[in-house]
Design goal:
alpha/beta, 5-stranded parallel sheet, globular, binds cytidine-5'-monophosphate, EC 2.7.4.25
């Protein structure tokens, strides 16, 4: 068996991270969470109090930026310039800042280079928004993982409830729809299905069912 490049794209809340992590584990592949990389750059922007609209300062930041992803038993650890930012990248502040930082051409160019290096020798699962379309258009296996906005909103709602955070279900679904629109309509690397992607609609599927389907497909092409 040879190690393939597996691209997994799709909207927020489709279960991409859970599925990508487990798929990479089962295949013995490297897992690259590209969203975490953009979030790590956003941490640096926040720490240095840079303006995400100031392309010149982002360009300077990217000229010697270092982002590392390290797989551990406890999950993926994320480092920015050698500092562990695993916790910080999930804060609401960074979640809000990341799309602004990810819109910068200099940031996207730097992350593209890094992502291509990480995938260069194959045996890798890359998860994001533009992997099958921009980063690895030649990936041997491409998935577009989706689910209805209602279902993704419901999943998010349940997740928050379990954490003891009270939100309104209808507002949560509306927020998912809003984020879909923003992701699809932006100019820099909009969320788009690759023509040759295998579309997996997980609306009525369990995580295990999705995983089996995807793993079988990858193994058939190895
Ligand atoms: O996937 P995640 O929610 O962690 O991604 C955080 C943000 O990073 C997204 O909202 C998007 O703005 C950006 N992103 C991107 N391109 C990718 C992955 C993430 O622009 N390939």
């Amino acid at each position: 068996a040879r190690g393939l490049v597996v691209a997994i794209d799709g909207p927020a809340g489709a279960g991409k991270s859970t599925i990508s992590t487990r798929l990479a584990e089962n295949l013995g592949y490297l897992y690259v969470d590209t969203g975490a990389m953009y979030r790590a750059v956003a941490c640096l922007v926040a720490q240095r109090r840079l303006n995400p609209d100031d392309e010149e300062s982002l360009k300077k930041l990217c000229s010697d930026v270092r982002i590392d992803l390290v797989a551990t038993a406890a999950g993926l650890k994320v480092y920015a310039m050698g500092e562990d930012v695993t916790q910080q990248i999930r804060t609401p502040e960074i979640s809000k800042l990341t799309p602004l930082v990810a819109a910068s051409p200099a940031v996207r160019a730097a992350m593209l280079l890094l992502q291509r290096q990480l995938g260069a020798s194959g045996g890798v699962v890359l998860e994001g928004r533009d992997i099958g379309t921009v980063v690895f258009p030649e990936a041997q296996v491409k998935f577009f993982l989706s689910a209805s906005a209602e279902e993704r909103g419901r999943r998010r709602y349940t997740e928050l409830q379990q954490k003891g955070i009270n939100v309104d279900l209808h507002e949560t679904i509306a927020a998912v729809r809003e984020r879909d629109q923003a992701d699809m309509n932006r100019t820099q690397a909009p969320l788009k299905q690759a023509a040759d992607a295998v579309v997996v609609d997980s609306t009525r599927m369990t995580i295990d069912e999705v995983l089996v389907l995807m793993e079988d497909l990858v193994r058939a092409r190895e």
